[in-house]
Write a structure and sequence with these properties.
The complex is a heterodimer. Chain A is α/β, with parallel strands linked by helices. Helices cover 33% and strands 23% of the residues of chain A. In chain B, the strands form two sheets. In chain B, strands 6-7-8-3-9-10-12-11 form an eight-stranded mixed sheet, with helices on both faces. In chain B, strands 2-1-4-5 form a four-stranded antiparallel sheet. Classes of the chains: A alpha/beta, B alpha/beta. Chains A and B meet through helix 6, helix 7, helix 8, helix 9 and helix 10 of A and helix 5, helix 6, helix 7 and helix 9 of B.
Chain lengths: 341, 332
Amino acid sequence: MADLLNIEDLHLEFHTYDGVAKVLAGVDLKMQRGDVLGLVGETGCGKSMTALSVPRLIPMPPGKITEGRVTFDGEDILSKSEGEMETFRASHLGMIFQDPVTNLNPLFTIREQLVDSVLYQQARGQKVPGRWKGFMPSVRQLRAEAQERAVELMRLTGIPDGDKRIFEYPHQFSGGMRQRVLIAMALAGDPDLLIADEPTTALDVTIQAQILRLIRSLVKQLGLTVLLITHNLGVVARSCERVAVMYSGRVVEESPVRELFKNPKHPYTRGLINAVPQKDVSRGGLIGIPGMIPNLIDPPAGCRFHPRCEQAMEICRRQVPAAIAVGAEHKASCFLYPEDA
Amino acid sequence: MSRLLEINHLKKYFPIRGGLLNRRVADFRAVDDVSFTLQEGKTLGLVGESGSGKTTIGKCILRLLEPTSGQILYDGQDITHIKARELRRLRSEIQMIYQAPAASLNGRMTVGQIIGEPLWIHEKLRGDEARDRVLELMTVVGLKEEHYYRYPHEFSGGQQQRIGIARALAVQPRLIVLDEPTSALDVSVQAQILNLLQDLQDQFDLTYLFISHDLGVVRYMCDEVALLYLGKIVEVAKTEVIFEEPKHPYTQALISAIPEPDPDLQREEIIIRGDLSHAFPQKGCPFAPRCHAEKLASCDSVLPPLLEADRGHLVACHLHPALSASSASESP
């Protein structure tokens, strides 16, 4: 099957007063239709930037893509005009963000915001029969239809009494319910790919469990493809099929979920898994990763992880390791593994 | 082993004002009748979702907030109403470490000044003497000597938290209230800080009140855990007991919701409905509207008291009557 999303050797730089920050240094990522891919990494590793390069929402300047290709369903995204991008985003993409408070306008009711996004996506996306087909419905009729669709979306995302609550303002919704509203908005245009950027980070664990269950059920019901960005390995273990681990602007390991947790290959992945306080770790048994994430303006030469890596070798200081197959569908970028393995 | 801290029936109500003349129309019960004890040298975890009152309890202990009623005993002494002079002495014994390291450090002071300030206030140390102590503290928490003249913004989150820890340690406290010390940090850094806190506890005989919403971290750090729901304690027990045999339905749901990094883990996933709401019926169990367990008639009408359902295991739930039956839970 052809790839739905293909990111190849993506390099992204940000020009700052201190110098050029090399935020992404050759990201490779492929997603097929129906995939649920978790993109994991710590603060500043470039996971959000990778995701934002798909809807091309990175501010340019100061950002600049210096190398690489992003294709979606065979179409080259980076060469599209801004107008084409708007159509593309409306018809193929849905995004949800971390903070459900700042992403809703407190001055408008949920109805106005949700109906607007339904109308916008219909008008831009051209997937839903347009308003010029057949006869021309009045604006009032359009809005009424859009409102029906909005209530339907609220039901789909598990908001009870959608037909009443649609008249309420964001502050009348709890954090979990606001996140559901945002998911409803993202689904308004019937997207192929849902990009969820830390969707549960601001929520309590019980609400997090509800939202993750919702995303999983949407994947089943609608056949969504999901790119889930998170720093929480537990969230990935619960809701994804494949994982890509990022470190300082590169994907260092990629594998099916079970394989990654049972048999992590890259030293960084191992460190990350060991750093999570788990069931059977006794007092003093938790192992962190020494040091801290590298400076992106002046990153270490060679493998960017080598200053923190216990197994660093001479070659790690000089060369950037390429992704090597270390198992079935399991790739790691590390010199510890021979090329032909 | 002695009781370092004892909290009896602590209440903190915030007024809700409204109506004509902005009168007090109702109370927001942030902390509602909470009692627990903390043994010297141990770590007690206070766990709950946002809005459960865990930070308010921490602030009441330091008297950063005045409790509405109740009693706080520190080392046998009632500190609920002591005056400013004594309070200052008390604060050299009880310190707090905050959640957002960047916001709790003054951006216009250097690291040396930040860590040195409590030394000046509490011990009148200045000059070289203070400087030596600050450098010593910095080594203890894993900062380098050259960081002395730097400003907080030059540090990463983990390093900033280390500065906050050094500042708290400066006055040689016995009790430290840790308010979500690692929730703003990445996991690899979180592990470093948690290990540092454990080392310091062993080294200086510290007692911790560990406030957190992350059960995984609590399981790693704490000897005992108290679970809060809407300002009330619903369950207290030793850490192993809480995680092996949780009794309260809320605890069970919370533990099943921990995202464990193990895809093979098979467990019953309890997903509770709705969310934390202070608009619960004032009678009955506050958790009743979201509860997934068997419902008794008394759930909606009688507030379940916190009773010893097993040895050293306190639960506030009608499903778990006290060890010696015939107790208060039976009476109407």
